[in-house]
UniProtKB/TrEMBL annotation:
Top-level taxon of origin: Bacteria
Entries under Pfam families matching the protein: HDOD (PF08668)
Domain HDOD residue range list: 38-225
Keyword Iron-sulfur: no
InterPro entries listed in its UniProt record: HDOD (IPR013976), RNase_Y/CdgJ (IPR052340)
Coiled coil (residue ranges): none
Keywords: Kinase, Transferase
Any one GO molecular function term: kinase activity
Protein name according to UniProt: Histidine kinase
Species annotation: Dethiosulfatarculus sandiegensis
């Protein structure tokens, strides 16, 4: 595995040396620049994220947006019918899926499906990392005794890479998507409880153990729970990704 792959030059050098696995910031950097326009398919998915995070959820409009996009509907139904949810009877329509999920879970899972669909021209590692973070945020909140924050923590982790998915600065994206103030503060300033989860995760990914300890102290979490939580998050994230990996491969950008 090649580590510290932070630039395109690092990536190309690692390829020349025969590396097949890579770790570093190269995958999560947004492609910012003058004249860079968001592709139409990604604009549509941004509209979906705006709709699903409106304070008053418009179920009819949301169902229409998801149902009109074959890829989105397919991804959602595959997720819902996966072992992760443990449904006894197969969910066969978007409307059924909406009924199965509560409002908070619906917002989270639609967000996940939309971001996965937006990654047509992105490395698979970006999608996997966003899922790992979402799950790790959520599981760390649970082990810290903050069960009431699990769903919001999941969304904060998922959205921590929005800039890399949409190639826009994070402040600009968060002006468009009406997420809670707590999530905005966490992603922009690493403040509040969700901010402590953000700091913890970023430090853990980089192996900055002093910073990990500081964040754990703020959260009141047990350091011995951290590795099992991260391992579970990795396993579940790869399982979720595999649900749509074959579909992504058959629908290139």
């Amino acid at each position: 595995m090649a580590v510290d792959v932070d630039t395109e030059e690092d990536f190309l050098n690692a390829l020349r040396l025969g590396s097949e696995l890579f770790q570093g910031r190269f995958y999560v950097q947004p492609k910012l620049g003058a004249g860079h326009e968001m592709p139409a398919f990604r604009l549509n998915l941004m509209r979906l994220l705006v709709t699903v995070h409106n304070p008053v959820l418009d179920y009819q409009r949301l169902e229409k947006l998801v149902s009109s996009d074959v890829t989105l509907a397919y991804k959602l139904l595959r997720y819902i019918n996966s072992p992760y949810f443990g449904v006894r009877t197969e969910v066969q329509s978007v409307r059924q899926a909406f009924s199965f999920l509560g409002e908070k879970a619906l917002r989270n899972w639609i967000s996940m499906v939309a971001m996965s669909a937006s990654a047509q021209d992105k490395p698979d590692e970006l999608v996997v990392l966003s899922l790992v973070r979402a799950l790790f945020f959520s599981q760390t909140a649970e082990v810290a005794g903050l069960e009431y924050l699990k769903e919001e923590a999941f969304l904060a982790g998922l959205f921590s890479l929005l800039d890399a998915f949409f190639d826009k600065p994070m402040p600009e994206i968060l002006e468009m998507i009406p997420v809670t103030r707590e999530i905005k503060d966490a992603l922009l300033h690493q403040s509040g409880i969700l901010g402590a989860l953000t700091s913890l995760t970023l430090a853990y990914e980089k192996g900055k153990w002093d910073e990990v300890g500081e964040s754990l102290a703020k959260l009141g979490a047990d350091k011995f729970e951290l590795l099992p939580a991260y391992q579970r998050s990795l396993e579940q994230a790869h399982e979720m990704f595999e649900l749509t990996a074959d579909e992504k491969a058959s629908n290139p950008a």
